[in-house]
């Protein structure tokens, strides 16, 4: 619980993010999905479990499900253990959720621009939400069979079932892979982090609670940097069966939060990691700040019957704490990302609470629910909503809800709330963009975060000079894909080119490199796309104007070079100087480019 007030508060910056959601393998694709939303619901494939063994229209069958629709991640068995120097046997024993968190933690640090320069690992903590482990159930199935055969669950058998041999026996490295805390602990081990490192479980609010805990730890000085997030995979049908038993899952295979015909949620998967640090530190270090956590509210419903249904008074308590912590009025947010499950009780409770909190004369606000696109990823659901909201605040755009028709009985108009049906600009209500995110978990734990835009977004932006973008990868094919990905992101986001240059300059260097000189985001996207085609055709060296590809010698000490300061050279001379640096950056020992930025130490 938090009892701080606005006067005591220290604002916390979000400086790095990464994610995996159905239909969105990274941040750029996630934003594309959010702004042109299409539902990611599909039939459960046989690679997870066989539909025929569980699907039934007989609602009295307590071991069955009445839907075969979910939103699942692909390729959850893929993991480059060698990249992290994790032995193959240890990697095989790791819960796939842990593997996912390791990948995303690295990507989030990379997104923060810290991969090349390093950061304060001595005082970096890791907090991750992990709710369930189907992998543990599969890995210990041999033990359950032994217990079954021994009569511990009823009549004994003379021998183990013949299928017992199909399950691998536990090895010496297995235990570490079965403990939930080993997810964040492995992140700390791989990245060499020495702050606290732990897993938490608050069910559907777990991911957002991990971020709330990170904010509290940063404010109290328990760490200087925090990696927070969560992961949810469903490798067995257990949760689907259980949630079908209580009728929370949509029989129609859709999720329509606050919409007409809403009949529950679709179960989903996902994961995300955020990098946080005090705003003052981030600004002093020159970090790119996505958004600022202004206020945090947490709490539990207390005495409840069963703990599976929302308590409006508990939700209201959490929201009021968040706005008191932020030092803001309860209607300060222009956009509210709800818990929004699409259940009758849940949606009614949440709209009622928002109406009571904000009051009859509240400023109008938009209301969103990403579960309409991704389904309900339980422990990772709050992270899905948070990353969506952070991107919306940063970009000043309101993502729409797909295929939405309002449920008139909910009283959205009376609560001064509108569910957007088309992407739109942020409302011009004040000088600062503000938003908020909610998550409420089974068991009654709720979290509400109040966000606002980075002060960097409010600062005047300098005009772009020519910039040097250097990309690298382990092989030529990967470099071509990377170039197309960056070009795609530039086209979609129209990011300031100096910021892109800085981010790329602070990433690790691999053997195959591509250097591009451009004077605008559109120019850079065009040249990167052209260079990618040349790489795919097997070309190297000078690929075209301002495009150079080559290889650097691995293991060689990399010399440093400073990019010309903006405005220090006439445009033509600056371009010529950058083209010389481009050739050096992708040949011989390569170059470690330095930009005007203070490393985060």
From TrEMBL:
The keyword GTP-binding does not apply. GO terms for molecular function: fatty acid synthase activity. The keyword Phosphoprotein applies. Residues 536-574 are annotated as: Disordered. Residues 9-453 form the Ketosynthase family 3 (KS3) domain. It comes from the Bacteria. Keywords: Phosphopantetheine, Phosphoprotein. GO terms for biological process: fatty acid biosynthetic process. This is Polyketide synthase. It comes from Streptomyces boncukensis.
């Amino acid at each position: 619980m938090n009892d701080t007030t606005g006067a005591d508060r220290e604002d916390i910056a979000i400086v790095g993010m990464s994610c995996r959601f159905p239909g969105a393998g990274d941040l750029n694709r996630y934003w594309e999905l959010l702004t042109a939303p299409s539902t990611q619901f599909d039939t459960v494939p046989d690679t997870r479990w066989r539909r025929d063994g569980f699907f039934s229209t007989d609602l009295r069958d307590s071991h069955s499900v009445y839907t075969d629709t979910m939103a699942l991640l692909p390729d959850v068995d893929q993991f480059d253990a060698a990249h992290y120097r994790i032995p193959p046997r240890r990697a095989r024993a790791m819960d796939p959720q842990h593997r996912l968190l390791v990948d995303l933690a690295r990507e989030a640090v990379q997104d923060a621009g810290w991969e090349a320069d390093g950061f304060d690992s001595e005082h970096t903590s890791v907090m991750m939400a992990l709710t369930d482990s189907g992998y543990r159930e599969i890995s210990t199935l041999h033990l359950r069979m032994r217990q079954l055969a021994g009569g511990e669950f009823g009549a004994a058998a003379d021998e183990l079932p013949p299928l017992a041999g199909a399950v691998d026996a536990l090895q010496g490295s297995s235990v570490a892979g079965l403990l939930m805390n080993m997810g964040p602990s492995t992140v700390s081990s791989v990245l060499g982090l020495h702050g606290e490192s732990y897993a938490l479980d608050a069910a559907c609010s777990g991911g957002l609670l991990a971020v709330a805990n990170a904010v509290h730890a940063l404010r109290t000085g328990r760490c200087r940097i925090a990696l927070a997030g969560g992961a949810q995979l469903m490798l067995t049908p257990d949760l689907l069966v259980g949630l079908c038993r209580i009728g929370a899952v949509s029989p129609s295979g859709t999720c329509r939060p606050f919409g007409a015909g809403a009949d529950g949620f679709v179960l989903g998967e996902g994961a995300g990691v955020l990098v946080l640090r005090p705003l003052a530190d981030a600004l002093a270090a020159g970090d790119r700040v996505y958004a600022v956590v202004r206020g945090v509210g947490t709490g539990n419903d207390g005495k409840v019957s069963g703990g599976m249904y929302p308590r409006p008074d508990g939700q209201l308590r959490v929201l009021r704490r968040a706005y008191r912590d932020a030092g803001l009025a309860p209607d300060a947010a222009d956009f509210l990302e709800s818990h929004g499950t699409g259940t009758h009780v849940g949606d009614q409770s949440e709209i009622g609470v928002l109406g009571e909190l904000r009051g009859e004369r509240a400023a109008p606000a938009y209301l969103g629910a990403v579960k309409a696109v991704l389904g309900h990823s339980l422990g990772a659901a709050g992270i899905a909503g948070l990353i969506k909201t952070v991107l919306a605040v940063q970009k000043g755009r309101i993502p729409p809800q797909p295929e939405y028709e309002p449920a008139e009985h909910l009283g959205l108009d009376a609560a001064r709330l509108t569910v957007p049906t088309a992407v739109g600009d942020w409302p011009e209500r004040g000088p600062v963009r503000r938003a908020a995110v909610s998550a409420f978990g089974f068991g009654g734990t709720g979290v509400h975060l109040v966000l606002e835009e980075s002060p960097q977004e409010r600062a005047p932006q300098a005009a772009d000079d020519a910039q040097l973008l250097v990309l690298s990868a382990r092989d030529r094919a990967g470099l071509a894909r990377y170039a197309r990905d960056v070009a795609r992101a530039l086209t979609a986001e129209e990011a300031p080119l100096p910021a892109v240059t800085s981010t790329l300059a602070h990433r690790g260097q691999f053997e195959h490199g591509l250097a591009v000189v451009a004077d605008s985001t559109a120019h850079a996207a065009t040249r990167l796309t052209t260079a990618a085609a040349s790489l795919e055709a097997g070309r190297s060296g000078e690929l075209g104007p301002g495009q150079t590809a080559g290889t650097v010698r691995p293991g060689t000490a990399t010399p440093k070079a400073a990019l010309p300061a903006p405005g220090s050279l006439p445009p033509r001379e600056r371009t010529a100087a950058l083209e010389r640096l481009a050739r050096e950056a992708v040949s011989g020992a390569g170059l470690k480019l330095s930009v005007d930025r203070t490393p985060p130490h």
